[in-house]
Amino acid sequence: MWATTAPIDDISFVDGTRTGFLQLFNYIQGQNDYKQQIEMTAPVLTEIVPSDGPFCESSFVVSFYVPKKNQANPPSATGITVQKWGPTYVAVRQFGGFIKDSDVGVEAAALSTSLSGTIWSDAIKKSHAGEITTVYTVAQYNSPFEFDNRVNEIWFKFDM
Predict the structure, then answer these.
(1) One Pfam match, by short name (predicted)?
(2) Total Cβ atoms within 10 A of residue 80
(3) Separation CA 155–CA 53 (nearest Å)
(4) How confident is the model at residue 130 (pLDDT cuts 50, 70, 90)?
(5) 0.85 cut: is pTM over it?
(6) Counting Cβ atoms within 10 Å, is residue 134 exposed (0-12), middle (13-18) or buried (19+)?
(7) Which of 23, 65, 79, 137 is the 20 to 30 Å CA partner of 121?
(8) Distance of CA 156 to the CA centre of its chain
(9) What span, in angstroms and rounded, lies between the C-alpha atoms of 18 and 13?
(10) Quick one: which of 51, 22, 26, 49 has its CA closest to 36?
(11) Which of 97, 90, 132, 138 lies closest to 113, judged by CA?
């Protein structure tokens, strides 16, 4: 179960993710219908629908995982939806460091290249109407205060 923002249109992954993160951080700090604090979880996910050009806004949807103890009756909040996922398959590329805007496309392209010619590439294309990287997700596992050994991932979701 995931707490999720509405789509955020921005030219910058970093800025779009920051905007969504702050909305979700307020939600888990008690700015919700129950005034209830919720434990922070990892990863923070940012789903990206890329723009058509380099100077156009992409769409970013940021999500936090809802801890099990809050899943039976999660609080609602303006601008936040809670979604239950079914089984989810993802192809993953892991990378480190603090993510810059310039990293996201490079890492997504590297994942796409690494999958080229595999059954996974075919499954992803089938799930995304022939496009391997139409929509993808960035998963960030570390607190902003952790400087070493940062773990990030690019995810391409697909159906089996």
Answers:
(1) SOUL
(2) 23
(3) 21
(4) low
(5) yes
(6) middle
(7) 65
(8) 11
(9) 8
(10) 26
(11) 132
Q: Which sequence spans correspond to the domains of the chain?
A: 2-158
pLDDT band at 133 (very low <50, low <70, confident <90, very high): low
State residue 113's pLDDT score: 96
- Give yes or no for a contact between 60 and 23, defined as CB atoms under 8 angstroms apart: no
pLDDT tens, residue by residue, 25-53: 999 999 999 999 999 999 999 999 988 87
Higher-scoring residue by pLDDT: 10, 54: 10
Tokens 């499954």 map to which residue? 123
Which segment of 70-84, 108-122, 130-144 scores lowest on mean pLDDT? 130-144
Q: Quick one: three-class SS letters along the chain? A: CEEEECCEEECCHHHHHHHHHHHHHHHHCCCCCCCCCCCCCCCEEEEEECCCCCCCCEEEEEEEECCHHHHCCCCCECCEEEECCCCCEEEEEEECCCCCHHHHHHHHHHHHHHHCCCHHHHHHHHHCCCCCCCCEEEEECCCCCCCCCCCEEEEEEECC
